[in-house]
Amino acid sequence: MGTFIGIEYSTWWFLIVGALFSGYAILDGFDLGAGAWHLFLKKEESRRIALNAIGPVWDGNEVWLVIGGGALFAGFPVVYANMFSAMYIPFMLFLAALIFRAVAIEFRSKEEMAWWRTMWDVSYSVSSILLALLLGIVLGNILIGIPLDENKQFTGHWLSFLNPYAIMVGVTTLAAFMMHGAIYLGLKTKGKLYAQIYQFLKRAIIFFVVSFIIVTVYTLIYIPHLTDKIQNNRWMFVIPVIAFLAIANIPRLATKKKFLQAFLFSSLTLAMLLVIVALELYPTIIYNTADPAHHITVSNAASSSKSLKIMLIMAAIGIPLIATYTYFVYKTFWGKVELDEHSY
Amino acid sequence: MDVEILARIQFAFTVAFHYIYPPLSIGLGLVMVFMEGQYLRTKDKTYEVLAKFWTKIFALTFGIGVATGIVMEFEFGTNWATYSRFVGDIFGSALAAEGIFAFALESGFLGVLLFGWNRVSSRVHFISTVGVWLGSMFSAIWIVVANSWQQTPAGYQIVGEGVNARAEVTDFWAMVFNPSSVERILHVWIGAFLAGAFLIISVHAYYLLKGRHVELSKKAIKIALGIALISSLAQLVTGHASAEVVAEHQPAKLAAMEGHFEENAPADLYLFGWVDKEAKEVTGLAIPGGTSFLTHQDFNEPIRGLDSFPQDEIPTQINAVFQFYHIMIAIGMGLIGLTILAAFYWWKGTLFDQKWLLKILVISVLLPQIANQVGWFTAEMGRQPWVVYGLLKTSNALSEVVTANQVLFSLILFFVIYALLFTLFIYLLNKKIKHGPDESPLKDQRPRQREVSNAFSN
């Protein structure tokens, strides 16, 4: 395996995949969260504004998932193949929800009838909630580990993805996205709707903090492989400390109505939580609960050194380009939502 | 039913459904680039009205294309785990390149294309349209590169064995420019141009027949017909080039396409026919030695027939491959005839008076769609029993841990969702077409004309 600045290509790729999924969590996180709140908004105009707040960006956000999935496939084909086939049912439900959501956003505005709009509102909101839950459930299974045989093939029951820990992580993910989404909506709205969103945000923060504490306590007590590295390396404490400070800052900034800063801190929260996950798992990617001596790791799952090198070059060229387009789009649509004839 | 056949049906169904949309997006994108370019050049508002109208239909096809495309990406991992491990080192880099270079460009600019009309200048908007279109073109490059590598693998070595065997890249550019890449990318692109151009021709021919949006529709048809004429002729060239690659690198596929069984005899070129696999003969109308002539420029040159291959290394559905291939050829020829005829009347200045031709153009939208579908069915079924030609069989490429019941569940799920999606797509497409372009920006000049005519009639 080749190295770059003393770090193996496979580790670089682990970092890139991690960065892509963090980017995905931050970006699609706010629009899934906004979707989860959708049915709590009662007025047609409020719903339209909320939908148009994510209108120009949700599709670009979803691309991070496509790129993240592609990067996982490219860098760690064994993880991609074995994890996706092990989690068959949740991934199929995920795809179904993803389609319903995209279609709901596109089709809702195409007819005036109340039943039509209600149908797509329900479809949009329920699928947003389901997507957040399923993402969290898959993450939860990665955290707790799955049973594998000597060929690294899944040996568990097809329903075992629905274990209590994974469900807790799912709920926490939903809560984090709802908080993140409410902050985003606060940035994009004004007047009465803004006041209503502010009430949502207060509830979302409580929902997130409670579910986060439950997951953290459970993890500390029952899942040593997710806590021992930070416990054994004192300097790493800095990361959970940053995460806790970021979380604590969100209600403080929200009460001061500083939504942009609050958004940055909720983004930082999501990123730091994923950094903790990556740090604790590395060099394992999929923890084998059947045989703790044979995990799927960064080294035994990676593509060839040559392939990783090619893709690192691509990433070095491509990621600044992506950052530029993203900046351009957000700049074009910066500020409060104004509905016009091109809106949803 | 066993897992293999269910997984194949699911993949074929989801990919065939997906493939209705990206070609439309690529083709519509090209025409929209021309429309906006014309607007910037001539400042004729008609072109902007056209571009805005087609952007709305583009949004519909693009949205469904993205949603159904993610399904394809995930299915590699969920249903074809052994395949994913085998090709990951190679296929992965193509998919990653698609994501990084194509999707990001496409989706980045899409927001501006759809919602930015009032927020950016018409020049920046034009650049965004070009960006989205180029993104969709790049996307096609990488996907076809990955598929072409499965047809004609190059630039790799095999490492490991059994379920853990995999192909590793040894030469990236040899992998990208494998023997069939270039011909197939061009063939796919042009097929997409035809799909988009014919949708535009069809809709505007319908308006002309109804006497609606007349001036607008004439301009739109001229742009789209120009593209369709060049594309249908060019498709003959890229099609022939692709067939030559098949003849050289995938002889069993070529033999199945023409129903050629004899081990070492000149191969006929069928215009149409029916293959009897048991009797090993084709009933139909053929040019004797025609396929030999097209491949070797000699009617008597022998070509390897299906009998010369091990019988577990040839496609099982020979008649299907034969029929799909011949439908594609027939449609391709039909499109050439149709576009030349339309261009002839355009040159004579009477195209828009030929009601019968406009009626044919309205229904012709289906032809490139069918040709694109059956073309892919020929390529993929003709490659069987291999998923990676000569290296990995489809039956060995599955996920070991996924059961038939799970696949049946997801197959039914996709079937229901896609049936709903297609119904909605047709309903909304029809509605948008019935509603038509919003010509109000053009009316700024009209009250004056009306005043003038009123003055005369008084």
UniProtKB/TrEMBL annotation, chain A:
<keyword id="KW-0812">Transmembrane</keyword>
<comment type="similarity">
    <text>Belongs to the cytochrome ubiquinol oxidase subunit 2 family.</text>
</comment>
<keyword id="KW-1003">Cell membrane</keyword>
<keyword id="KW-0349">Heme</keyword>
<dbReference type="Pfam" id="PF02322">
    <property type="entry name" value="Cyt_bd_oxida_II"/>
</dbReference>
<keyword id="KW-0813">Transport</keyword>
<feature type="transmembrane region" description="Helical">
    <location>
        <begin position="310"/>
        <end position="330"/>
    </location>
</feature>
<dbReference type="GO" id="GO:0009055">
    <property type="term" value="F:electron transfer activity"/>
</dbReference>
<keyword id="KW-0472">Membrane</keyword>
<feature type="transmembrane region" description="Helical">
    <location>
        <begin position="262"/>
        <end position="282"/>
    </location>
</feature>
<dbReference type="GO" id="GO:0019646">
    <property type="term" value="P:aerobic electron transport chain"/>
</dbReference>
<dbReference type="GO" id="GO:0070069">
    <property type="term" value="C:cytochrome complex"/>
</dbReference>
<feature type="transmembrane region" description="Helical">
    <location>
        <begin position="205"/>
        <end position="223"/>
    </location>
</feature>
<keyword id="KW-1133">Transmembrane helix</keyword>
<keyword id="KW-0479">Metal-binding</keyword>
<dbReference type="InterPro" id="IPR003317">
    <property type="entry name" value="Cyt-d_oxidase_su2"/>
</dbReference>
<keyword id="KW-0249">Electron transport</keyword>
<dbReference type="GO" id="GO:0005886">
    <property type="term" value="C:plasma membrane"/>
</dbReference>
<feature type="transmembrane region" description="Helical">
    <location>
        <begin position="235"/>
        <end position="255"/>
    </location>
</feature>
<feature type="transmembrane region" description="Helical">
    <location>
        <begin position="124"/>
        <end position="144"/>
    </location>
</feature>
<keyword id="KW-0408">Iron</keyword>
<feature type="transmembrane region" description="Helical">
    <location>
        <begin position="164"/>
        <end position="185"/>
    </location>
</feature>
From TrEMBL, chain B:
<protein>
    <submittedName>
        <fullName>Cytochrome D ubiquinol oxidase subunit I</fullName>
    </submittedName>
</protein>
<dbReference type="GO" id="GO:0020037">
    <property type="term" value="F:heme binding"/>
</dbReference>
<keyword id="KW-0408">Iron</keyword>
<keyword id="KW-0249">Electron transport</keyword>
<comment type="similarity">
    <text>Belongs to the cytochrome ubiquinol oxidase subunit 1 family.</text>
</comment>
<dbReference type="GO" id="GO:0019646">
    <property type="term" value="P:aerobic electron transport chain"/>
</dbReference>
<keyword id="KW-1133">Transmembrane helix</keyword>
<keyword id="KW-0812">Transmembrane</keyword>
<keyword id="KW-0472">Membrane</keyword>
<feature type="region of interest" description="Disordered">
    <location>
        <begin position="438"/>
        <end position="458"/>
    </location>
</feature>
<keyword id="KW-1003">Cell membrane</keyword>
<dbReference type="GO" id="GO:0046872">
    <property type="term" value="F:metal ion binding"/>
</dbReference>
<keyword id="KW-0349">Heme</keyword>
<dbReference type="GO" id="GO:0016682">
    <property type="term" value="F:oxidoreductase activity, acting on diphenols and related substances as donors, oxygen as acceptor"/>
</dbReference>
<dbReference type="Pfam" id="PF01654">
    <property type="entry name" value="Cyt_bd_oxida_I"/>
</dbReference>
<keyword id="KW-0997">Cell inner membrane</keyword>
<feature type="compositionally biased region" description="Basic and acidic residues">
    <location>
        <begin position="438"/>
        <end position="451"/>
    </location>
</feature>
<dbReference type="GO" id="GO:0005886">
    <property type="term" value="C:plasma membrane"/>
</dbReference>
<dbReference type="InterPro" id="IPR002585">
    <property type="entry name" value="Cyt-d_ubiquinol_oxidase_su_1"/>
</dbReference>
<dbReference type="GO" id="GO:0009055">
    <property type="term" value="F:electron transfer activity"/>
</dbReference>
<dbReference type="GO" id="GO:0070069">
    <property type="term" value="C:cytochrome complex"/>
</dbReference>
<keyword id="KW-0479">Metal-binding</keyword>
